[in-house]
Amino acid sequence: MTINDVAITYEVCEHEGFKYEMNTYHLNPTIPLDKQLKILARKDVAPEVAVVMWENGRQVERTYYFPQYQCRCEGNHEGGTT
Ligand SMILES: [Zn+2]
To answer: Domain of life, per the record (predicted)?
Structure first.
């Protein structure tokens, strides 16, 4: 059996009300999951990372949140000029 676990990074904007997939990464089983997710979230500036893993032949999905990468666009909609 090959290890098929993947992490999907998501761009989320609560202000604009959207959420879309950015990138899918294959996870490395030799590196702690927390560490890999932190690296991926920072790379993509992703406030949400979904991990899809296979456990006993069933697909299990877990979502991890990175509030430090949350969209802060609200402040940019005022004025319109720089
Ligand atoms: Zn936003």
So the answer is: Bacteria
Q: Ligand 1 centroid vs 35 CA: distance in angstroms?
A: 26
Q: From the CA of 46, how far away is ligand 1's center (Å)?
A: 12
3-state secondary structure of 39: helix
Give residue-wise pLDDT tens across range 37-57: 999 999 999 999 999 998 888
- The answer to whether 61 and 50 are in contact (CB under 8 A) is yes
Which CA distances in Å does 54 have to 5, 18, 62?
7, 28, 11
Q: Kind and range of the H or E element at 61?
A: strand 58-65
Name the burial class of residue 72, with classes exposed (0-12), middle (13-18) and buried (19+) by CB atoms within 10 angstroms of its CB. exposed
Query: For the whole model, what pTM was predicted?
Result: 0.81
Distance 27 CA to ligand 1 centre (A): 28
**How far apart (Å, rounded) are the C-alpha atoms in residues 36 and 6?**
11
